[in-house]
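Section 3.1: Structural characterization of target chains.
Under the original work plan, the team committed to producing a structural model for every single-chain target entering the pipeline before any wet-lab resources were allocated. The record below documents one such target. The sequence was received from the expression subgroup and is listed exactly as submitted; it comprises 247 residues.
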Amino acid sequence: MSALVVVPTYNERDNLEPLVGAILEQGADFSLLVVDDGSPDGTGELAERLKDGRPGRIDVLHRPGKLGLGTAYIAAFKWALARGCDYVLEMDADFSHDPAVLPRLLAAGRGADLALGSRYVAGGGTPDWSLSRRIISRGGSLYARTILGLPVRDLTGGFKCFPRRTLEALDLDAVRSEGYAFQIELTYRVFQLGGRVVEIPIIFPDRRVGQSKMTGRIVREAMLAVWRMRFTPPARTGVRLRQTSLP
C-alpha cells in the first residue's frame, strides 16, 4: 500500500524541514510530494535538497508562481494517479495539521471514499483560536452545510485522505474552486457520486511560524462558490462510488 502526502507550499522554508521529518517518521507507507509555487524564500530549493537526502521518499513539483491551492492539489492528484498511488492525503505545511494523525487518517480512508480531519466533531477543537475566528470558521461550515445539504461538520478543513478509486471517479478538470471553496467542492463532489465520507477528530492549533494565507477575499469567494456548486449539475464520469464500508 502506498500513501502519498501532498503538501502545497508558498514561503514555508522555516516549516518544511521539520515537517518532512515528522511526516516520514509515520512509517514506510508514507511518501511526500511538495508542490511549491515559486516561493521567493527558497522553499522549493530546500525541498530539492531534502529530496536528494531521502531518495524515493520525497518528490517536488515546481510551479512558476502563486497559482492557487486548488490547482496545486489537482496537479498533485494527477501526478499521484499517473504513478499508481493507492491513497493521497492532503495537509498544510504549517503544522496546523499534526503529522502524527496521518496513520489514523489513512486507516479511516481505507474504510471510506473520503476521510477528513474534523475540528467540529467530538474530540476535535481549535484551542488557540480567538472567539471571532471560531465563529467565522464554524459559521462558514454551517453556511455551506445548509446550502449543499451535507451532513459533514467540517467542510472547510484541508486534512484529507482520498483512496485512489475516489480520485479516479472525480472529474478533476471540472473542479473550479480555490481556497476554502476548493475543500468544500471536493467533499460535495464525492457526495454527488454517492461516496461515503467519514470525519475523525483533530486538534487544530495556530501555525508555528510564518503568515496565514487566509484573506477576506478567499472567504467571500467561498461564500459565492457554494451557490455555484448548489446549482451546477454533477460532472458525469460514469462512475458511482459505493456508500457501504469497504474491507
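The first helix runs from residue 13 to 24.
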